[in-house]
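Submission sheet (multi-component)
Chains listed below:
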Amino acid sequence: MSTVVDTTGGGGAGANRSFLASAMPVLLQLRRLAFLLFFVTTLLFFLLRAAGDPALVLAGTDATPEQLALIRAQYGLDKPLLVQYLNYMWNVLQLDFGKSLASGENALLKVLDMLKRTLHLAFMAMTLSSAIAIPIGAWLGFRPETLGRRIVGGIVFVFQGIPGYVTALVLIQFLAVNLRLLPSLGYGPLEWKTWIIPTISLAFFMMPQLIRVTAANVAEAMREDYIRTARAYGASPMQLLWRHALPNALLGTAALLGTQFAMMMGGSAIIETIFSWPGIGWLLLESTQTLDFPVVQAEAFVIAVLVFLINALVDLSFRYLDPRLRNKEA
Amino acid sequence: MNAPSSATGPVVRIENLSLAFVGQDQVVEALRGISLHIDAGEIVGLVGESGSGKSVTAMNLLRLLPRTKVQIPEGATVNVLNQDVLKMNETALRTMRGGEVSMIFQEPMTALNPVKRVRQQMNEILQRHQHLDETAAEALSLSLLKDMKISDPARVYNAYPHELSGGMRQRVMIAMAFSCKPKLIVADEPTTALDVTVQAQILNLLKDRAKATNTAVLLITHDLAVVAQICDRVYVMYKGKIVEEGATRAVIGNPQHVYTRALLNALPEGKAPKSRLETVAAAMIEGGTAEAAAPAPVRASRPPSDKPLLEIVDATVSYASRFDMLGRAIGYNTAVDHVSLTINEGETVSLVGESGCGKTSLANTLVGLVPLSGGQIKYRGQDLAALDAATRREIQIVFQDPQSSLDPRWPLWRLVTEPLTVGNSPGRAALCAAAADLCGMVGLDRNSIDRLPHEFSGGQRQRIAVARALSVRPRLLLLDEPTSALDVSVQAQILNLLLDLQAEHGLTYLFISHNVSVVRHISDRVAVMYQGKIVETGAAEQVLTRPTHEYTRTLMDAVPSLEKVFANR
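Outcome: structure written.
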């Protein structure tokens, strides 16, 4: 045994320190978030400045030089870039991203409003895909060498190559056009019929990868010594899989779910466009095309916070799933 | 004490069992007509080297081998508690597994489920076989853990496996094995992964509990000294056959079969230090008589000089273990604690100690893998940190596990010559020539330089690792448990090789090991390490036979030794 030089919280003096110790991971995470947001906003500020003159966008293409100058003065665009940047950062610090150039709405509120819808879609799609993919993956990984499973595995592999919009178009053709069961597009917060095809399309797109990762992790867990132990103590095949192998295999699945969720935040644009589901992906396309820079900036900020939160959540789920990771920082 | 088993006859009766593994395009025979029996309450050893079929025999008792891959010819009987397991279905087998027959496995680190508390794992078994409710299961589990001489059973019961030491986990495993009052426990290398002092405790615990509950034990091991310590009877296996059987004392004291004799002769224990050990392969090839393979004497080794080659002065190695908000280290674990040691040119100095005592950290520091936190290391009078590359190369290291220390995709010639390509790039032809020479030095076939690591046996792989270290003509070799992962007979080969190389090239060795009899065999001087400190240094014979420090005495008492066992009986 090695000697621990540091003495932790021995006795009454430890009360204050143990609070600090338990708050430490949170503080560390917040520091990381602050760095992340600083870099994202800074980078975006300069990138957008390089992409186009905001005064031109504001004034329109047929504005006279006088009008342009007026607008520059009004928005502070005539000041040195560094001053503009500092002003901008000061506003960001107060969560003020300005008004949308297209609609005049508060940019941040507009983004948050769209975010609700994307989260709605993402949440439904992820629930559906996990509910189907994890059991299939577990079944596939349990005895990967049997014929039936190899065939299913092959099918999953092929489906991994099908883009989400193809599924979407097929479903629209079949369920909306041919059978007239469901609406082909549109979004109503309470009209569940409009949710079905987009949810299935997105879930279908995510499932193959989730199945394959779960299967690979379960197959690996099944080769571990503790499975042999459980077998030697009379566990049935179902107990081996669900009670012993799967809990160990879910770590990889959780990591992938986090990645998939983060990707959906920016990458749901195609599905949202196909179904006229006005979410954050659709807004991103729209605002970038029209150089609606307050919205783009607010959106990048929100997505950065969101992805950060997802990662923190995945981290937390790791600690829940694997006790060995719990005492790392605390 | 329980009443003796009501069933008459032996607990296990295996007759004429052969078994083969069926692969894609080949059939590998693992067992060739073995017969054995175990009576109620008896502790029986099954000894052999890796690949001899001993674990297969054990796994087959509960039919734990994949049925689709196993072929058992007609005419075999495997009776466990008067039931023919070869004819039982899975459901019946599941009732037996963990109930009347339970198992203890080698690796306590991996044999328990890492995401479940001990509580869940013990209760699951009690609920399955004894149909106990949560409260009853808890009460019984706690008393079982207490029987294992665990001082705080409640903590262990609620802990996750990673929160327990290796020895503690193995106690949990044994408590699980005894939990459903089995008639038979199959223990597959239960102490191989443990330190000697822990091994001694675990073996005594297993023996005491088995005798107290009249449980039969089949103990599978490669270590004859372990068998000598606790077994009533022993079977010796070689290449899928049982070659010798009898009372432990008779088999070890007066072995009849040539293989048993060869195995005993391969042990360094009781042999003259630095003498050439007999290898099993040689004995078996010589057509039956072990005496025929008279070991050639090791070349007369040069006497070590008294010129210091390496001087370790007050060395400290610590690892940061806790960090503050800005990522600065605020807590340290000290692995090596103010250690001083001098190694003379041509000398073999051994560092003995248990896992975690800091011996590997010290070795890693010597080759620059881990920075020194305090003190100084001097090589040939110069500070180690200030050495030029050419001099630094004179210190090389060989790691414990040749399985994982060699890149599986590299052919032999590339593996052994990699150190030569640091800083310059000789052509492939030159490297292959160098590789062939190195093969000659370490006793590998010169024509095998294009083969990959998996095509070699464990012993051959360790030869490759030694060849790699020799490629840059080192003066000082650090050998970190070079024989711990090897069979006894292979260990003998590697020890012979190391002694030969030292005699021929005047090498200096720092030999790191927990195996006292190996250390006694190869060393001039011994340093005993405990909790990061060197507690005792001196001539090998003196330290190991007349230890002065309390820890060294504890260590020496725990070492399973054939001589000691027979002296005490």
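Remark: The two ends of chain A are 21 Å apart (CA to CA).
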